[in-house]
Amino acid sequence: MSELICSQKNTSMAEGTLWNVEQVRDKRFKNANYQKLVKRQWLRDTVWINREMARSNNRLVPDPDRYKVIESSAWSWPFLIYPMRMGAWKDDSIKYYEIGNPILWWASAICCIFVYPAQIAYMLVCHRRKCSSWKPAEIRQFWDVTKLLWGGWFTHYVPFFFFGRVLYIHHVLPSLYFGLLLLAFEIQCAMRWYMPARAEWPVAIVIIAISGYVFYLFSPLTFGWDRPIKELAHLQWLPTWNLVTDPHLVL
Fold first, then answer.
1. Cα of 204 vs its chain's centroid, Å
2. Any bridge partners for residue 97, and if so which?
3. SS3 for 96?
4. Of 124, 149, 171, 190, which residue has the fewest beta carbons closer than 10 angstroms?
5. Rounded (10°) angle between helices 197-223 and 102-110
6. Which among 173, 111, 176 has a CA at the least distance from the CA of 146?
7. Is 110:182 a contact under the CB 8 Å cutoff?
8. Which residues pair with residue 98 across a beta bridge?
9. pTM above 0.85, yes or no
10. Mean pLDDT throughout 205-215?
């Protein structure tokens, strides 16, 4: 047991800093069976913790009459309409903007919402009409991989439409991971199916270069920017972003 004083002025040598350290040693502790005291039931605990989490989340109800700069709705997440400020937004403070790489964010959203469902529908029509140009092994491999990735994106994103609690853009990050993996696999399949072998590496290098350059552009907002945010005004690609000024904030 110890007593600590949390003060910037105090030091370990100050008179007001007290240290009280006690230690108890007992040989019986080595042979003690703590499993009987902390025995848990996995199923019961899982149900209990999810029930309590649901109760606590339902208490975090947003105020529709008050604008909050860090809140957003689930419909706005895939296309990064309202990124989130993190930290104070003064000129001399370290500012973080939860935005990541917009190109990959938008590309994964288009892939999950439009491209993949249309692709599955097209494959089903071709299969029904017996005019498919894909080999059965290719279709099987494509389905085995994409059903997991798209299913992960769907199950981690869609439930937020039914939540009554306040929502923040970082809630979409688990589904974003699945979306990025699906995007990468779709690009690989497209290059393998529709491009000559000699063009695959050049196309891949171009995609990597563009992604890396956009990441570099937005890296100050990812790792922290401690200078006036107006110096990064060129990174406000959408009018809804509150990077420099907040159009929805009433002063």
1. 25
2. 85
3. strand
4. 124
5. 120
6. 111
7. no
8. 84
9. no
10. 96
